[in-house]
Amino acid sequence: TLLARQLEEKAFDEFYTQYLFFINQYDKPPLILVDKIKRYEVENLKEIIGALCAGEKELPHLLDLKDFSKIDLSAWPDIAKMTAGTEYSWIKNIPASDQQQKLDFELDLHLLRENWKAINSCHGENREGHKKLFLDEFIIKNIIWALRLELYYEMPKEEIIKNLFYVTEAPDKNDPLAAPAIKVLDYDINKFEDWEKWEYAKYLNPYI
Q1: Among 58, 65, 127, 194, which is least packed, fewest CB within 10 Å?
Q2: HSE toward the beta carbon, residue 118, CA cutoff 13 A
Q3: Contact 71/48 with Cβ under 8 angstroms?
């Protein structure tokens, strides 16, 4: 509803204003802090691409990222000009509607890799803390997604792997995000014995 959207916008504005105040206390904010804003820029970019795919004439409603926005909104609806000179400059054309999801996934991968680089630019305990939070979140998301594709869509293992998040060169057993999800694809979903010594076994219900 309109009221719900207004409340969401107000909450975001208040959070974002406070966050900008915080990072502006630094002469040179750590990359890990500035990098958090990229999540919102990617969401804005997805909204823009979605609107263009749908043939909309007006710029969609976007999150106001103040001076941290890199996308040139004044260049609407030319996506190549909007992304020129940014890390998203590889997006030069609007995809066909059936390819939009693929581009959204590529944006998610780009964001995750940038997050991973920012985390690894930290030092000492800060890096380990950020790394644990990042890995805990996206490993679980990958595992849930992999199992959903296997159980509900009966997707072959090779295709599932192509749809996993990863931060290295490929979603394989050497990638910190993809490896745990790939591992569970070899477990028998109907044999709890296969899962007993799994790292996340405490989250499972053995009686289902």
Answers
A1: 58
A2: 19
A3: yes
Q: How far is CA 133 from CA 11, 49, 54, 114, 137, in A?
A: 24, 30, 36, 15, 6
Query: Cis peptide before 171, with omega less than 30 degrees from 0?
Result: no
pLDDT one-digit tens code per residue, 125-177: 889 999 999 999 999 999 999 999 999 999 999 999 999 999 999 999 999 99
d(CA 84, CA 87): 8
Give me the DSSP letters along 45-100.
HHHHHHHHHTT-SSPPP----GGG--S-GGGTT-HHHHHTTSTTTT--SPPPGGGH
| Relative orientation angle of helices 124-152 and 100-120, to the nearest 10 degrees | 150
Distance from C-alpha of 137 to C-alpha of 100, rounded to nearest angstrom: 25
Eight-state DSSP code of residue 177: T
* pLDDT beyond 80 at 190: yes
- For the entire predicted model, the pTM comes to 0.87
Dig out the tokens for 33 from the structure: 């802090």
d(CA 26, CA 124): 19
